[in-house]
Amino acid sequence: MITHANTLYVQTPGAYLGKEGETVRVKVEGQVRLTVPLHHLEGIVCFGRVSVSTALMAEAANRDLTISFFTEQGRFQSRVISATSGNVLLRREQYRRADQPAACLRIARSIIAAKIQNSRVNLLRGGRESDVPEVAESLKGAANHLVNSLDTLSRAPTLDSARGCEGDAARAYFESFNGLIRQQRESFSMAERSRRPPLDPLNSLLSFVYAILTHEMAGALESVGLDPAVGFLHVDRPGRLSLALDLLEEFRALLADRLVLSLINLRQVRSDGFETQPGGAVQMTAATRKTVLTALTQRKRDEVTHPVLGDKVRIGVLPHIQARLLARHIRGDLEDYPALVLK
């Protein structure tokens, strides 16, 4: 049984987090602003100038509760985690499979297929909801392109060719992404996907949510004993959480993109909630960041039916379920890894 708790996000400059008995106390200028029982938390995320006591860090490690530190703009800096858990034999098998092109292709193909299918669901849904016939037709055309990408992927003979299918599908998806925006189109659109730095408010939103989810994926993988740095789809690089990025691919369209589109189309975020820096990077204001984090927390509490388990689970639990399924595949308990696809 997996119990989904809450993630505590702290972004107030000068905030200090300490341990008081069985609780976390957040102080600002010496005054207690928030008290949260430790057993209610699955993680703590700090943005900018936020301090954490050594006592709280130690207790968090003992409870397998991850503390992550990001810049105010959402760039990851560091994490405090507990000692590596899980069977060493599982990690040894993970490393062996990561060195086998055929094993990598098998897992990568499943992940990419799920990403493409989830992206296609977004395009089809956007086409049905659009009040502009030309936009609806364009979204339908992009969705059909993704069907062709899935067919090509199923016949991809190598990992590089599978990556090529993923790249082609991603280009088609993001070229049509503006059509999914029904409100505030003049303020939220992208000429192309820009990451480092994001060059418009839409890219800023996407990059921020992707960064948060990447480190939640890493925590889920670590909790089942897998190494989040050794992936099957993404190339290993120093400092890169390659397996966490692999797992993220399944969640980009179904969680991150849907959340961002909802925030824009419901006018919960607005263009005046972003700032353009001298170098051209577009960053969220603190108020916008709070809105995004609140919406993400609420979304993670929604329930869906898991396509493999057949049970209703909270969305926040899905990374942990997928991590466990991946571990079962690596151990040999499952013939294939069932990547997550939701309607």
How would you describe what is shown here?
- The mean pLDDT is 89.
- β2 and β3 form a beta hairpin.
- Helix content is 48%, strand content 16%.
- A four-stranded mixed beta sheet has the order 1-5-7-8. A four-stranded mixed beta sheet has the order 4-3-2-6.
- It has two domains: 75 residues, CRISPR-associated endonuclease Cas1, N-terminal domain (Ribosomal Protein L15, Chain: K, domain 2); 243 residues, CRISPR-associated endonuclease Cas1, C-terminal domain (Four Helix Bundle (Hemerythrin (Met), subunit A), Up-down Bundle).
- With 343 residues, the chain is α/β, with parallel strands linked by helices.
Q: Can you name the CATH architecture of the largest domain?
A: Up-down Bundle
CATH class of the largest domain: Mainly Alpha
Identify the CATH homologous superfamily of the largest domain: CRISPR-associated endonuclease Cas1, C-terminal domain
Determine Rg (CA atoms, Å): 20 Å
The largest sheet is:
4 strands, mixed
The class by helix and strand makeup works out as: alpha/beta
Q: Are there runs of 5+ residues with pLDDT below 50, and where?
A: none
Sequence of strands across the biggest β-sheet: 1-5-7-8
Query: What's the multimeric state?
Result: single chain
Q: How confident overall, as mean pLDDT? A: 89
Number of domains: 2
How much strand content do the residues show?
A: 15-25%
Question: What is the third-level CATH name, the topology of the largest domain?
Answer: Four Helix Bundle (Hemerythrin (Met), subunit A)
The H/E string reads EEEEEEHEEHHHHHHEEHEEH
Shape: globular
How many beta-strand runs?
12
Share of helix among residues? 40-55%
